[in-house]
Structures
1.
Amino acid sequence: MNAKKEHEDLFFRAFHSSLTAMAIACAATHQFLEVNRQFERLTGYHCDELIGRSAEQSGLWDVNEVRETLEAVGEVPEWEVRLQRKDGALRDVLVSIVVVKIGDTPCWLFNLLDITERKQAEKALRNNLNGLAQEVQQRVADIESFVYAVTHDLRAPLMAIEGFAQALLEDYGERLNEKGQDYCRHIIRSAQRMHQLIDALLEYGQMLYRDMPLQPVSLDQALQDALQLLGAYLSQKAAKVDVSPSLPEVIANHTVLVQVLVNLVSNAVKFVPPERSPCVQIWAEKVNGWVRLCVRDNGIGIPKEEQDRIFRPFARLHPTSSYPGVGMGLVIAKRGVERMGGRIGVESEPSKGSCFWVDLLPAPSQSQQR
Ligand code: ADP
């Protein structure tokens, strides 16, 4: 046996023992010359029904669709075909074709992978996901309109309470004694606080549900925007804010990041004893693959055992008379940071100031993007 014959023998043994469906057709006539057992099983035809006929004649596929590629480069690595079996059933198949020479005859070697189940599973999964996404969207819309309705309905009587207490004080104030006037002022303050609580709840609801596309965001820009929003408050408090230059880019949502920074910086300025001028330092550092943004203050600090609690709704360590607020700022910040794939925490000691940190993923660097 010469070497060529030996190779061909080896090839045919591999061909017939292969666990994937394979067939060989003459490149000139398209007629099948050989098919293996798996090919018969996949198509439902016996080899006698296939050999001497082309795939087109057998109703399997039309090779003309890929003929140009085949002739140009001698192979088609992946061609998706829906073929009809002898019993009429349709199968989705991935076909690879290579041009080979058997003896002196140029032939096509077909290799077939049945992907029907895979495609059905993919389709079912896609339908499920679409259904699920629609359901989630519907629920979010329901919750949003519920929250809107509730807060709207709460505000109307609240405005009446506040307005009438105000009118009472203005129009009938002289008929009330000091105690009566004080009650009116108390009603007005409580109504105003209720407005703040509703605002905070609305803001929190938005942080939970609103669409939050993430992309590379400049920390420099976000901080600049946050400080601009806080401008009047910072000058009223005579606060000094030091920001280290050239902060990196992070993966975030600009609007949400600005809101997080507003909450952290305003707290850093707010929770400072009245006799001290607020002094805030802001910088970023790399920590285990994260970009850590730090906001350090010279304020009253937070005892260790309270440091978890302050991230929970309505948790406040001080009466509003000494430090105003509703206790939702950090909860809102935490939710926002978590939805941007990050985390938030604090290091602090009473009377030694606090350092709140936010970890976010770094944006891919310019050189990586290219
Ligand atoms: P609010 O500022 O409306 O009270 P937050 O959720 O922002 O609500 O903060 C919750 C509590 O955490 C505050 O009431 C305060 O006791 C504590 N806290 C937050 N930030 C600081 C800070 N920088 N220094 C000291 N205490 C803080």
2.
Amino acid sequence: MKILIIEDEPSLRELIERAMRNEGYRVETAADFISAETKLAGYSYDCILLDIMLPGGSGLQLLEALRAAGRRENVIIISARDAVDDRVAGLELGADDYLPKPFHISELVARVRSVLRRGRTGGSLTIDVGNISLDPTSRRVTIGGRSVDLVKKEFDILLYFMQRPEHIVDKVVLAEAVWGDYADESDNFHFVYAQIKNLRRKLEDAEADMEIRSVYGFGYKFSMKE
Ligand code: CA
């Protein structure tokens, strides 16, 4: 389980980080809006702990962008702004929980356990890009209304691209997101190439109007066919 802590207050961030590591979670942190945005663009998390007032922007904007991209990560808002308006705004934008500051760290740990147990339910949300439709919950993909069979890694790669259409995707970041920790080993790039090759062929065969383009020396871009 991988957790992202977005919190600008150093002592609180470190306290939460320690508590989450004690729970056995892998933890990453971001201390401001821009670094949070960068992390979210490159990686997926099982749970995001999100402060609202951040240097450089609002946590609510990050949440809005995440949901607009069809991302279903669990989000718990941790914020001193305990006004009813923020709570409502956060939940309307699709936060899974809201914990006003100050809170006891054991309370936060309990909330994280609870959202992770619940999983990403709450109705399936399909992601549509071009004529491709993908349901992350049932792991079903249709192209032009017809079902397409993908093996697990092909599905994971397509999901990653569907969440980032028309964005340049770094192949190292892609490999890490899909294969996990061992992706730095050069061997794994052969798997990335092989899976992308297969996925391209399946998209082509199903007459998808999106394609995976190579961006020389960098990675890929999932783009509308010209
Ligand atoms: Ca703050």
